[in-house]
Amino acid sequence: xxxxxxxxxxxxxxxxxxxxxxxxxxxxxxxxxxxxxxxxxxxxxxxxxxxxxxxxxxxxxxxxxxxxxxxxxxxxxxxxxxxxxxxxxxxxxxxxxxxxxxxxxxxxxxxxxxxxxxxxxxxxxxxxxxxxxxxxxxxxxxxxxxxxxxxxxxxxxxxxxxxxxxxxxxxxxxxxxxxxxxxxxxxxxxxxxxxxxxxxxxxxxxxxxxxxxxxxxxxxxxxxxxxxxxxxxxxxxxxxxxxxxxxxxxxxxxxxxxxxxxxxxxxxxxxxxxxxxxxxxxxxxxxxxxxxxxxxxxxxxxxxxxxxxxxxxxxxxxxxxxxxxxxxxxxxxxxxxxxxxxxxxxxxxxxxxxxxxxxxxxxxxxxxxxxxxxxxxxxxxxxxxxxxxxxxxxxxxxxxxxxxxxxxxxxxxxxxxxxxxxxxxxxxxxxxxxxxxxxxxxxxxxxxxxxxxxxxxxxxxxxxxxxxxxxxxxxxxxxx
Length: 480
Prior knowledge:
This protein has helices at 2-19, 25-35, 37-58, 108-175, 180-214, 242-252, 254-275, 339-345, 364-430, 436-471; strands at residues 63-78, 85-104, 280-292, 296-301, 307-314, 321-327, 329-334, 348-356. With 480 residues, the chain is α+β, with helices and mostly antiparallel strands. The strands form 3 sheets. Strands 1-2-3-8 form a 4-stranded antiparallel beta sheet. The chain has a two-stranded antiparallel ribbon with strand order 4-7. Helix 2 (25-35) runs antiparallel to helix 4 (108-175).
């Protein structure tokens, strides 16, 4: 009984620990990369590229095929063994093995393997880009939750101050030191703050649900994140120039690698299309054999009367009879040879070379070559456009990060000023030199300054990480 109670308590403890688990940003990113549907689809594309590579390599191997057939004939049919027309019923079977090998096809098999390698690399680049995008989505959603939680803590801490002010003001009103209007003013402020707290709690819950949905986690009620220990961690990216970051992005970003791979694929497609102009030389080897269960007749010499004399003609001038000796034979029916014997008796071998020279196919080859030339030019333009887009995007991210830093520094300065103004207003209110309305306005400005600092801080953190990602730092190695 005691053991059962201990086991139940341990299970409850494990369950409670699982329910109270708080996810770190790295855990969220890793979980998303392992479970996101888009990432899984991109991984399937990589596996499909491996299959294409296997198929392309198979083009260097000979083709091997085997065939067999069995039939029964009734009536007048040609015996496949004797090739004689016979009116009977017989069973026949045939088998063959054929081997073919392409000796030359305009290097298309080589180009196809090279294209498969490039295609696999492009699929890997697309997978990497998908992982980077998912990581950014998760980081953005995660920081949004932290921001909402930080704002909620600001509102709660300031409302605690308001509660203390209500209690003190109520004592001063009862003592006749302050008018009752001051108490009503602070109580109204308390009501507004509590409404803001409720809205902030809703924002936290909504942002947690959005993050859980992004991670494909359905247990919304128990999902929570680790909201402490995240600060501005600059790995030196802010000290780099825009040109340095753009150069790093050009060398590392998957968008450029994908576009470059598309150019290489278009070049290989053009080479494969041009290979159709060349002759195709193939070698072949074939083996076949036959079997039939038909009976046949053979001529045998009569042992009792092995020969006979027969007239074969006369001499024209003398009329003398010319005779000859002939074997005295008779027809005897025999059964079919054994199956294993017929396989060797009736087999045949064929081998040789086959040359196919393309001469005219209705401009199909020419049209395919021209089409692939156009695709190659289009992919080059897409590469150029991708470089321009990435340069513009990185530069915009650089400007946004610099602007966010300035906003963050300005928000810190504003908070320091509002802190001094709030402390001064509180001191004056505590000694009765200012009314509750003025104190409430100062407190509200101080609350807004703290919230704006939180927004500026996490906005700068996110944009700083975007720059690091563009510079080539892997998403799983970003530090917060």
